[in-house]
Amino acid sequence: MKNNLLLILFASAVVSASAQDEYVVTYFEKTEIKESEGQLKNGHPDGRWKYYNRKGVLTKEIDYYAGAVNGRMAYFYENGKIKSEGYVYNSKAQGEYHEYNSDGSPKVEGRYLNSKKDSIWNYYNINGTLIFVEKCNPEGCLAVSAFTNTGKPLFENGNGSYVTYYADEKTVREQGEYKDGLKEGLWKTFFNNGNIATKKTYTNGKPTGTSYTFYEDGKKRSVENIENGIVSFWYQNGKKQSEGRMKDNLRDSVWTFWNEDGAVTSLGLYRKGLKEGLHKGFFIDGRKESEINYTAGKKNGHAIWYRTDTTAADKKTIVKHFEGDFANDVQTGHWIYYQITGKKGNEGDYADNKMTGLWKWYYEDESIWKTAVYRNGEKNGPYLVNYENGKVFYRGNFVNNKEEGFWERFYENGKKEMNGSFHNGMMDSTWNAWFDNGVPRYTINYKNNLKDGVVTYYDETGKKTMIESFKEGVHHGKFIEFNEIGTSVIEGQYVDDKKEGAWFYRQGDGKVLRREEYKAGRPFGTWTEYYPNGRPQSEKNYNKNGVLEGKFAKYDRAGKTIYEAVYSNGKLAKVVYQTSGGM
Fold first, then answer.
1. Which of 314, 313, 258, 265 lies closest to 288, judged by CA?
2. Is residue 214, in this structure, part of any structural domain at all?
3. Torsion of CA 115, 118, 120, 121, to 10 degrees
4. Is 573 left (phi over 0), alpha (psi -120 to 50) or beta?
5. Are 293 and 301 within 8 A, CB to CB?
6. Domain span including residue 65
7. pLDDT score for 581
8. Which pTM value belongs to this model?
9. Choosing a second label site near 189 at 20 to 30 A (CA), which of 248, 394, 466, 522?
């Protein structure tokens, strides 16, 4: 509780937790709903703290001293009534303890001594009527008396018959005998449909003989031989679920587990409830799925998992999936992971559950696909990836799981495709690329993974295809696109990733087809389209807002006006002239 409370205080306290003596109120995140309140002394909860739910209702009150629970603990129903109340000193329950029904009537009352029941304990039904009394000491409890829901005695002085009922006051819930305050003989519990739920025999308050549990439909669920400890469980369909020996309510022998179809799914030794030695797992058809060694419930030593080779004709051939060693549930030493065919897929070492040293990955023919060096689970050192023909695909170096230094990539024929440098996982400095015939493709400068400077692109014959300029990853400066004969077909400027100034669009022979003007990425000024003979085809004007303004005209190939209009702030104001084919 102390740790949880301090986390809440650090997140939302209105007063610093370092204050020497302050009253603190915390609130649910992003609300004004109070979550808790109380005193901090020397940075620790002290005195009575109150806690609320999101409805603002008090849910509990806890007393603290120097940050530890010390004193009264009380929990509340939403109607404000106390649900339970007790006391804790030096981390142990001490003194009076009470539970209440939601109407405030008593439910349980007794005393604790060093967290164990002590003295007389009384139990009440939902109406507040006393129904059971027991006398306790550190060694255990003895039944004293029991009563019906109407208060009629069932037995006194720890001897007699005991029976309880469901709400209908007719259907038995539990029945048995007490002798000298301890359960004796056959005890039974029932479902509310009247079917038996459990049967257990007691001698001097301890189970003896054979105990049974059942499903609600009457089918057997478990059988336990108290003398030899052997316990068997069944599924509701009648198939056995598990079987083994119990000791002190803990598994303590070889246990076998089955699925609902009756196939064994796992078996292995347990000691004091913990797995020990070799445990085997099985697929539904009985083929082995895993072999894992345990010590005191933790995986220790070699472990192997298996799977089906789906490439095999019978679809039943079992191959290794992966294997390696554990030390107290932590992966350690050499591990191998296999391909679906059973051939090695990758292998390497673990230290404290983290990959370490040289790791290798393989193609289906077990030739090297890639290698990497790890330290503390992160790639640190040379990194290599090969083609299936054994030639290098790409290679470089990692530092703390990030690319660092010179990297290069190759075509499958062994010729260079690209190279450049990384810094802290980001492309940095100059990067070069080539076509597989060795002709340069481009050269790009990077800063912090962003393109920076002028880039010229080429085709496989060495001709320019494009020039573009960058500044911190966005277009900035000249932009030119060339056709296959080297003619500039698009040309213009960018400023901060926005078109600026005149942009030209040309046909294959270099003649201008369209001229556009931009300002901060918006159309601006006069835009002109041209016929192949060089005469204007249309002219239009844009204002500073990037919408049509003023004269808009179209011409025939001889230069004669065939349409003229006037625009105002992007809207057609009037048509000045129009021929029959002008629009």
1. 265
2. yes
3. 20
4. alpha
5. yes
6. 1-76
7. 60
8. 0.72
9. 248
Element (H, E) at 532: none
Burial class (CB in 10 A: 0-12, 13-18, 19+), 85: middle
Relative to beta strand 368-375, strand 344-351 is unpaired
Residue 168 within any structural domain of the chain? yes
Which DSSP category does 428 fall into? E
How would you label 206-239 residue by residue, b for 16+ Cβ within 10 Å and e otherwise? eeeeebbbbeeeeeebbbbebeebebbbbbeeee
Give yes or no for a contact between 232 and 242, defined as CB atoms under 8 angstroms apart: yes
In angstroms, the CA 265 to CA 296 distance is: 21
Nearest alpha carbon to residue 75 among 95, 94, 51, 96: 51
Domain end (from 37, 56, 76): 76
Q: Mean per-residue pLDDT for 371-394?
A: 97
pLDDT band at residue 167 using 50, 70 and 90 as cut-offs? confident
Helix (H, G, I), strand (E, B) or coil at 141: strand
Percentages helix, strand, coil for the chain, rounded to the nearest 5?
A: 0, 65, 35
148 vs 105, 154, 165, 173, 186, CA distance in Å? 17, 7, 9, 12, 20
d(CA 39, CA 44): 8
